[in-house]
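Title: [Solved] DNA replication complex GINS protein PSF3 3D structure

Original question kept below for reference.
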Amino acid sequence: MAEAYFPVGPGLGTEENFLSLDDILMSQEKLPGRAESALPRLAVLLGQGAGSAESVPEGSKLEMPLWLAKGLHDSKRRIISVELPKIYKEAWRTVFSADANVVDLHKMGPYYYGFGSQLLNFENPENPEIAQTILQATGGAPVCAVSNSVCPLQTFIARFRRIMDSSQNAYNEDTSALVARLDELERALFQVGQKGLNDFQCWEKGQASQITASSLVQNYGKRKLAEVDG
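Solution (posted by the thread starter after getting help):
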């Protein structure tokens, strides 16, 4: 049976993938900020008025969804300013450095890594420190803007080993308590570990399906035969 929805992965780094459900949900997360100029007809959208024609006055404090903050942000025109959510501020970065495993990331923000990477779109003097604390979803180690060296992936590395250990030692049992404190990226990694464990257990019991060559390998072999015959 064909799946109704084929999962699409999130975007890389500061980019979003608008076909990804995770990125769509992440873009709804709220950012604190301030209106640096009047915002015409946005009062209703920002919960600051009842009429669609009302404007947000200059200087108003705001709670904006990420997608709107990115749309209004302009480095040349001071339309809005964005503040860091508390979990990315220095006090919490100190907690992560001391023991990242004690933090309930899902409670603090279910898209901690992805949302933190999106914050790097906004000019903030603490961006290098944020990049050191989180893992930017670029497939590689982030580079520290201050020292131009590879930054330590403190939070992700500190939590990754425990996540994978837990996923590899929970066979046929309730895992809800194990994933309750994980953000969505970590939950996806936990599921990958669980799938590997289940597949291995099936293989040990002789229940795994027969291994066959992939279509890529078969097609490569056919091309080689065609070259020889030619």
